Amino acid sequence: MNQVLEWLQFVLAPQMINGLSIGVAVVLMALGLTIIFGLLDVINMAHGEFYAIGAYVAVAILGLGLSFWWALLLTPVLMAALGYVTERGLIQRVFHSKDRHTLTLLLTFGVAVVLEDVLKIIFGANPLRIESPIPGGTEMLGLFFPNYRLFVMGMGGLVIVAVWLLVFRTSLGAMVRAAAFDRYMSASLGVPVSRVYAGTFAFGVALAGVAGVLLAPIYSVFPTMGRDFVLIAFSVVIIGGMGSIKGAVLAGLLLTQIQSISSLFISPVWNDPLLFGIMVLVLMWRPQGLFGKLGHA
Amino acid sequence: MNTKLIATLVAGAALSLGAAAQTGPIRIGVVTPLSGTYAGIGQQVKWGLDMAANEINAAGGVMGRRLELIYEDEEANPAVAVQKAEKLFQVSKVDFLTGTVNSGSTLAVGQVAERNNRLIATTVSFADTITAEKCSPNVFRVNARAGMQSAALAEWMASTKPNASVFYLGPDYEMGRSTVAAFKAAAEGKGAKTVGEVFAPLDNKDYSPFFGQMRSARPSVIYTSVAGNDTVRLLTQMAEFGLSRNVQIVGASGTVTSQNLSAIGKAADGFVTGVGYTPNIDNPENKKFVGAFEAANKAKPDLYGADSYGVLFFYKAAVEKARSTDTDKVRAAMRGIQWATPQGVKTMRAGDHQAMQDMYAVRVNSGQFEIVGKVPASAAIGPDTCAKF
User: Fold this and answer.
1) Which range marks the domain in which residue B251 is found?
2) Using CB atoms, which residue from A11, A219, A259 is nearest to B233?
3) Hey, is B366 helix, strand or coil?
4) Do B151 and B106 have their domain in common?
5) For chain A, what is the domain count?
């Protein structure tokens, strides 16, 4: 009996807390992806690279001598501007075509490839790192947990709640949802649809940027870092239901818990096969994902 | 172009080459990556070779003949290396070839050398097989192989942490599994106890899911052979979780390098690995070498630069002993020969063509490697397992 309790406290509990901190990171990535898909109907293949640029922008801001907190504040603003320009300059040009899905997919994929090399040219291929702004750790229930990870979990939770309130509890959010639901009707009621689209894309990119800054002290910064979370973020969006914020949050937390707990029992190389196995099962049972609505776009 | 003209040209070329073979320069082919991922290593190889050739030529050459280096870019690709080596042997008629970096390139070029009846030496490749199961009578290695690096590290560990309980963490692919297996064998041979091992996927982002397992195994030493950015994440996350306290972290020679050291920062302090060369080896030859190298290239030599510098003195010593550049005579002279290098005197083992040299354990201290232990050549070399000659 004692052994079971000890196992629960010293093996399972820390594993679950670790899983939660990774889960928050995954949700932050999936959130931007699902918003851009749900409201714009664009599958943003460059989302991982926007995450990487967020981290590099933070490195550059720190290089100017400003503190990490300034980087956390300024990066989303700069990233939103980049997202706005990308939407107006590139995505709008193919958005109104009949083959919208194929064209935006190819376009954002191309953008991803270019951005990765641009980062390599500007910053070099060697890894960089941001020093953790909150060093040290906290003892909880006899366990040691890094303070910065606790901060990321809290901050991530705040961002998730703020995004939910913004989309579902403000008139701005209502305007965005209306434009996504029926753009002709919204336009005739005076919603500036094209600016709403660009703004929504910018918001999704800014979220990727926030994830980049928050996670840089934990995962280090290098040109191909965008590929790290994008695969699991895509899976989370598909399992949760394309475009569903609630689905992304729940699926993100659930999947990372499954991965962390399973890695206690099976070799961690099975993490990805496990993830995709679950995705296949969910799609067989509910093709629209856990909280998605089929045919809604 | 008509056939007569070609015939005349070929005859002319043959004549001039025949004459050159006696009095002209000794040609040395260099097949090394000058572009691509390994360009940084190729750069060190070139700096080392150029410097040695200049010194040898300034002092009167080899038996009165100058050394001439002919470079070809192998792009760290064995298929390209084979073509370039063939070209150097057949067209440029080089007497000797060196510079291969990738272990696959060294093995492939070794076969080309066998067919052309010429000799090659690698100054970089680590893979043990080159001077073991896949040894060749035409291939020599002047640098330390992976097994010697493990032996040096295991020796240091046995003396500073006797009967250590070791936890192993490697990347889950061929290199990771073979380095962990090699070091584990060396460590257990010296009395260390294995308390656990885990293989993480390559490019793993978060190592914290393994930390519970590592902590509950209560190791006194953690060995890792992850490389590149994986090392940055592993070591910083271990420091973040307080896992680096009261435990000695050791690893493969490619785990912490000048490329990722600055990103790891303080978390790299205390890391120990086994190497065959480091710029702060304390002897007059090395001080002179490092000074001249830095003056010429505005960069410190690393193990590749130092061993590439040394290989020309190895060839020079063998040719002077053989009094000829003939392959069979030079090969016989190379076996068992001793020559001076920045690392001290090296001996070429006759049985497997592996150079014997003193090995060092080095520790990272505030972003610099410092020597913490030295293992004599005889203790590090390991048995001769070459059965081909």
Assistant:
1) 147-275
2) A219
3) coil
4) no
5) 1
